[in-house]
Amino acid sequence: MKKQLLLLGLLGMTYLSSYAQKINRKAVVERHTVSVASFDTLASLSVGNGRFAFTVDATGLQSFPNYYSNGVPLGTQSVWGWHSFPNKENVKFEETLKEYNLNGRKVTYSVQGAKNAKSKEAINYYRENPNRLQLGNLGFIFKKKDGSTAQITDIIVQNQQLNPYTGQITSHFSLEGQSVTVVTICDPNQDVVSVNIQSNLLKTGQIQVFLKFPFPSNQFLDSGTNYKNTDQHQSAIVSSQTQSAIIKHQLDADQYFVRFDWSKNGTIIENKTHEFILTPKVEDGSWEFSANFSEKSPATTSTFSAINQRSLLAWKNFWNSGGAIDFEGSTDVRAKELERRIVLSQYLTKIQCANEQPPQETGLTYNSWYGKPHLEMHWWHGIHFALWGRVDLLEKSLDWYAKVYPNAVGIAKRQGYEGARWQKMTDPAGEESPSSVGAFLIWQQPHFIYFAELVRRQKPTKSTLQKYSKLVFATADFMASYPHWDEENKRYILGKGLIPAQERFNPEETFNPTYELVYWHWALKVAQDWRKAMGLKPNEKYDKILQNLSKLPVKDGVYLATESAQDSYTNPKFLTDHPSVLGALGMLPPTPMIDMPTMQRTFDKVWDVWQWHDTWGWDFPMVAMTAARLGRPDKAIDGLMMNIRTNTYLPNGHNFQDERLRLYLPGNGGLLATIAMMCSRDDLPTGKTSFPNNGQWKVKWEGFKKMP
């Protein structure tokens, strides 16, 4: 094994004496300033602070939300904005449970298969509630010279730019020959959108601002443009002054406020139900306003100038902290595009994924899966923060696990296991959501140990151990109680009763998936390391699993997806979705469970036979990680830049998947994690990278932390 690792470490890696050279970070970031020249529904731009995001059209606000509803929607979302419909039928969560006979005992799972009408109602209710709110549509109303309201076709877009280095969106457009310039920013400390407008149309009263409250659609996707159901929620101006106003929005038991503050004078009125109009009263062509979204009635909001100063400083500090990479001088035609994806992915994950909850897969732009986080995706959303030297941004979401810990313990106990079980599809309180797939996934279970280990590696202190050890051990306790003892073959088996990361398998038949076996072994070993670091004896249960866990399933010289799928590479169904067998080496470091030649053959097999058109955005980073660990940098780049629709990165940097998921942040996070590990990881010698050594790649990097 050591000889194999040494050989692979020496093959295909690029020596870079320049890896620690200083990078002009501002230049790298600003050469990927986003430019938009039309009302492109897939090129909407966002500002945000990690816990709140605001997405705009080419006017710099959300002036035409319906037009963008099937693209990247014009969302206003926060980490705190949640809503639940009333439980009118008084359904119980227990009615979502289905009993399975697995490994000689009965286990209950919350699944979608309804037993009866009451069960169906319960399943739908707990799947759909709570749902993340679209907090409001905030846009311009433009009046033409004849007094009529301008339509989108009347607006001539000249140029709109997002400068990621400053966090500013600057929009230039015109109406009937009159130019308008709008600068849009977000307060780094509060959920405030602030706007500066320059136009002679202000003097003639041809620019107004509207705030419109949509109603939750209660659908899988919510673009925030449901203006029906007006009688099912309430909104009103609760205070109004010459330069400020507060509006309250009430939905069932949930409420929040929007405070407007503006320069000079102006008036605000309720134009119609759930729609409010702010009209500036100015004599020149300059005006500013801010909108503060808050759970509680907010105090006075800062001026545009003050918010802009804070925002500029916050973004400067972000870009000049942590890691950076520079491909200037590379001749590979893909280098410029890869660098663009890297820069914009940092911006997008910073404004959409850096908060006190695991994010949803579509971040804070629009709802997918009712706005709920998926814990198996937290790895893809979050580990790059640590690898890029911004571990504090990862830690923001780790406190959530402590908050919902009692629920995780309750799930494990109900199913007859020890410790805490982390579910796939959850809500802000850590409650389960019924899912015929998510209920059986287990690869999210070791994630917390991985997160905590990344923190420990960068903060190797007693306080780190004290803060996270309880959850590390509770996670491992479940993992040690979950495997089933196979008396005939004297081994522990994962399953039956699981679905692997490749979601193509029947849970009642599936056991011993390759990736999950390796992850189980690695995480339990790390948990033992934590015990040692705390001066504790090794846990006997952990050791028992480590010593007797099933070997990886092999057939015809390659690793199978699962031991139960001997037709892993001949059944067309099993050649789609995530090729997670590769995650056993790539996402995870080399371990004693992996035979390198076998993984080399497995990689080639997957590369040749996989139906790449039926994959997801994070599959391409995963493939690249495996190629990098195997010493195959050409394949790492080929994987990252594969020309497949789900590997599309839009002009705004978002990873497009399909008509449902027009953005997909696990792809962005996965890309960033891969770039970091291609430059710095435990099994990569100092001074080398996993970029091709063919003279076409010139790579400078700094500030990355080693991936395990």
TrEMBL record:
Signal peptide residues are 1-20
* InterPro entries in UniProt: 6-hairpin_glycosidase_sf, 6hp_glycosidase-like_sf
UniProt keyword annotation of Signal present: yes
Task: Output the superkingdom of the source species.
Answer: Bacteria
State the UniProt keywords alphabetically. Answer: Signal
User: What's the name of the protein?
Assistant: Glycoside hydrolase family 65
Q: What organism does this protein naturally occur in?
A: Flectobacillus longus
